[in-house]
Amino acid sequence: MKDKIKSYGFIRGLRDGLPIGLGYFAVAFSLGIVAQKAGLTPLQGFIASFFNVASAGENALFNSIIEKASYIEVAIITFVVNARYFLMSCSLSQRFSSETKFIHRLGVGFGVTDEIFGISIAQEGNLNPLYNYGAIAIAVPLWSIGTSLGIIAGNILPLRVVSALSVALYGMFLAIIIPPAKKNVIIAIAVIVSFIASYICGIIPFVKELSGGTRTIILTVLISSIVAIIKPIEDKEAINEMKTSHTEASVCEEKTDISKKEEEK
User: Fold this and answer.
1) CB 150 within 8 Å of CB 32
2) Residues 125-183: tens digit of each pLDDT
3) Contacts of 117 (CB under 8 A, 6+ apart)
4) For residue 233, what is the DSSP state?
5) CB of 135 within 8 A of CB of 116?
6) By the 8 A CB rule, do 145 and 46 touch?
7) What is the pLDDT of residue 204?
8) Helical ranges in the chain per DSSP H
9) For residues 27 and 169, what is the distance between their CA atoms, to the nearest angstrom?
10) The pTM is what?
């Protein structure tokens, strides 16, 4: 029975990861064009995308190669652009069962992206690593293949066509944030505030000079901290335990009262 449940988690991951993979496949074409300018072969582009799995990070990586940056500069800029994934990984780590092995935590951490994080955090209860493995198994190869094909055929396709294909990712982001926003007013307000704050940070002096990844980290920490302070999420398990304890105590009191009445009779 447990094996069936686990395999179902993997299948659900494949199902939910398919639209993400298709969106990645389209967007990876544009990265393939940049990678081609950097002098990468299709195989090198595949390997770079497979082990990076980040559009902004790979774009920074390929442009750094074009500019002939040093290894240290490439490492630093990739680290800064992808630093937001530390926050996502920390958030996901709180959703694992205490029995989840370390190797599974590493496996899930390898495939953390904005979209995979979104579908993972939306799951109810403890996070099943097989669900993430299913999403990773379909999304990452399509992302890597898209980069390779972009290197081969990216310059042949009109740039407008490539840009039009990337619109699918915006649709996926909306599909991730709209359902929870409908259920929770606080989440809806936080989403709207994040949109406005992101726009403002992109136009005000000094802040707009920061990279998009750095601004994302600052806004994520700031907005989530304010929301957590103003409207913290109640621990459902603690509440259920309190209800259970209260019910058991009430039952014990009722039994005691019945026993006393019987003794008086």
Assistant:
1) yes
2) 888 899 999 999 999 999 999 999 988 876 676 767 766 655 655 665 676 678 888 88
3) 88, 91, 92
4) P
5) yes
6) yes
7) 87
8) 2-37, 42-52, 55-66, 71-81, 84-93, 102-110, 114-121, 129-153, 159-165, 167-183, 185-201, 212-230, 236-264
9) 8
10) 0.61
Using the CB atoms, write b or e for 50-73: b if 16+ within 10 Å. eebbbbbbbebbbebbeeebeeee
Cα angle for residues 139, 141, 144 (degrees, 5° grid): 110
pLDDT reported for residue 168: 56
Structure tokens given for 12: 């659900």
DSSP 1: -
**Is the Cβ–Cβ distance between 144 and 50 less than 8 Å?**
yes
Q: Are 78 and 61 in contact (CB under 8 A)?
A: yes
Scan for tokens 């990468």, then name that residue: 40
For 37, phi then psi, to 5°, come to -65, -30
- Note the pLDDT tens digit of each residue in 67-76: 787 788 778 7
Of 212, 224, 184, 202, the C-alpha closest to 88 is 224
Q: What is the DSSP letter of 53?
A: -
Q: How far apart are CA 17 and CA 11, in angstroms?
A: 10
Max Cα separation, the chain?
Answer: 96
3-state secondary structure of 103: helix
Angle in degrees, CA 186, 215, 224, rounded to 5: 25
Phi and psi for 79 in degrees, rounded to 5? Answer: -65, -45
Q: Which tokens is 156 given?
A: 């042949």
For 203-228, give one letter per residue: b (16+ CB within 10 A) or e.
eeeeeeeeeebbbbbebeeebeeebe
